[in-house]
């Protein structure tokens, strides 16, 4: 190999080394620029989904014979009302516990799911229809009123079909009050309602 050839080989080798170093630097920089994986959210329930019905049961499908556990107390569904007013619909379920206490559980999507536990308020002297009513020292403001058709299944104490007039009120603290009159009796029944969050109740459907 003459001197010129040797020089060429050495120069070519130097170029290849430089190219290799540059390639390694570029690859390293690209690796450094890759976004780090997002850390897992702290305190996230791995079983939580948008549809909690798979875990806690679906209140929209409640029917006579089902069991509802509310704040640790088990209630049996004795009867159900399916109510409609125009294109709107909701359900109300008569429930009782082991002590014989009775209440109503309403289920409505407005558009979010609303589940309310209703207990009768006896001897209410206030009459529905006014803009505000006072009951047990709390003032309620009228929310809505109307007349709905209902279909009854199970044990509700009502006819299989009929109509109900209602006036719904709400207090500033979120407490609910409802007046209902079934058929043409002219008799109004009052009930106080508590909205339930999803974690406060669980549905145990019975085999159908």
UniProtKB/TrEMBL annotation:
Q: Per its UniProt entry, which superkingdom is the organism in? A: Bacteria
**Protein's UniProt keywords contain Zinc-finger:** no
What parts of the sequence cross the membrane?
6-28
Keywords on record = Membrane, Transmembrane, Transmembrane helix
Q: Which InterPro entries match?
A: DUF4178 (IPR025235)
Annotated Basic and acidic residues bias: 45-59
One Pfam family name is DUF4178
- Domain named DUF4178 is located at 64-196
Region span, Disordered: 35-61
Q: What is this protein called?
A: DUF4178 domain-containing protein
């Amino acid at each position: 190999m003459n001197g010129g050839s040797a020089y060429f080989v050495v120069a070519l080798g130097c170029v290849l080394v430089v190219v290799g170093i540059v390639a390694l630097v570029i690859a390293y920089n690209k690796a450094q620029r890759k976004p780090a994986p997002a850390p897992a959210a702290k305190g996230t329930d791995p079983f939580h989904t948008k549809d909690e019905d798979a875990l806690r049961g679906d209140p929209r499908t409640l029917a006579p014979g089902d069991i509802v556990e509310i704040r640790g107390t088990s209630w049996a569904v004795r009867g159900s009302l399916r109510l409609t007013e125009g294109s709107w619909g909701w359900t109300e379920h008569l429930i009782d516990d082991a002590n014989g206490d009775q209440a109503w559980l309403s289920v409505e999507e407005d558009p979010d799911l609303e589940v309310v536990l209703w207990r009768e308020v006896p001897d209410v002297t206030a009459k529905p229809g006014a803009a505000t009513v006072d009951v047990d020292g709390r003032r309620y403001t009228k929310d809505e009123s109307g007349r709905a058709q209902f279909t009854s299944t199970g044990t509700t104490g009502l006819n299989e079909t009929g109509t109900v007039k209602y006036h719904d009120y709400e207090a500033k603290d979120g407490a609910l009050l409802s007046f209902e009159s079934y058929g043409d009796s002219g008799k109004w029944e009052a009930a106080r309602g508590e909205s339930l969050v999803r974690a406060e109740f669980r549905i145990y459907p019975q085999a159908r």
